[in-house]
């Protein structure tokens, strides 16, 4: 399954839960997650999308740790199962 297919499924799933799934870009800062998922009640999840079996690059993992150190939930999603776990 393509990464873009999984990403569409994520967006649809978040919307079905009453949330928003925004594309995240940060000019000048490489390695940031692909999406910010905003859920009712103020829950925020940063999501790095990957094709099935792919892993995050070292710079991406560094950015994930930085966000986690600030208390944010950061996920790497490479399957429909992982989408449902959000």
Structure description:
This protein is an alpha+beta fold and about 90 residues long. It has a single domain (about 5-85), classed as 3-Layer(aba) Sandwich (Trna Endonuclease, Chain: A, domain 1). It contains 3 helices and 4 strands. It has helices at about 5-15, 60-70, 80-85, and strands at about 20-25, 35-40, 45-50, 75. It has a 4-stranded mixed beta sheet with strand order 1-2-3-4, sandwiched between helices. Strand 2 and strand 3 form a beta hairpin. The longest helix is centred in the N-terminal third of the chain and has 14 residues, at about 5-15. The radius of gyration is 12 Å and the shape is globular. The mean pLDDT is about 95.
What's a concise summary of this model?
By secondary structure, the protein is α+β, with helices and mostly antiparallel strands.
Average the pLDDT over all residues and give the rounded result.
Answer: 96
Can you tell me the number of structural domains?
1
Write down how many β-strands occur, each being a DSSP E stretch of 2 or more residues: 4
As a percent range, the share of helical residues equals 25-40%
CATH fold topology: Trna Endonuclease, Chain: A, domain 1
């Amino acid at each position: 399954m393509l990464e873009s297919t999984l990403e569409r499924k994520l967006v649809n799933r978040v919307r079905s839960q009453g949330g928003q799934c925004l594309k995240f870009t940060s000019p000048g800062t490489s390695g940031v997650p692909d999406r910010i998922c905003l859920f009712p009640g103020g829950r925020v999840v940063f999501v790095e999308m990957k094709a099935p079996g792919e892993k995050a690059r070292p710079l991406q993992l560094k950015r994930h740790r930085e966000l986690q150190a600030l208390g944010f939930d950061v996920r790497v999603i490479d399957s429909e199962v992982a989408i449902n776990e959000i």
